[in-house]
Specification:
single chain; alpha+beta
Length: 142
Amino acid sequence: MSPSPVPAVIREDRALLVRRANPPDAGLWGFPGGKIELGETVREAATRELLEETGVKAEAQDIITTLDILVRNPSGAMQQHFILIAVRCRWISGEPIAGDDALEAGWFAIAELAPDKIALSADVEAIARRAQALASDENAAI
């Protein structure tokens, strides 16, 4: 079982997504992310994975939510259990270029994220909207 930080990077009204190259979500669009290394904090892992997968530098901020992704084999037995930790990140610099295990990377308008328009990983739309709301609340308080 590997906790995997999932950086939810919001820039204006757009979310940074990658099209995954590897299972369990190969071919689907989702947030960049990967395994937490021994001794690494969730926030450190989120910013490192983001840079490795997209070339984008960001500052990790709040944990948005966690997700359990249960992968079963064809007979229904548990094969893998991924724990995804969605971390809101503030964009600092860089434009996305697919790297590491991403096939493509790019900015997507949050208002246009919908499973009937683009093949998305679990809860991407809801997490992007939550990250956008957090950013809006933060900006309103300033």
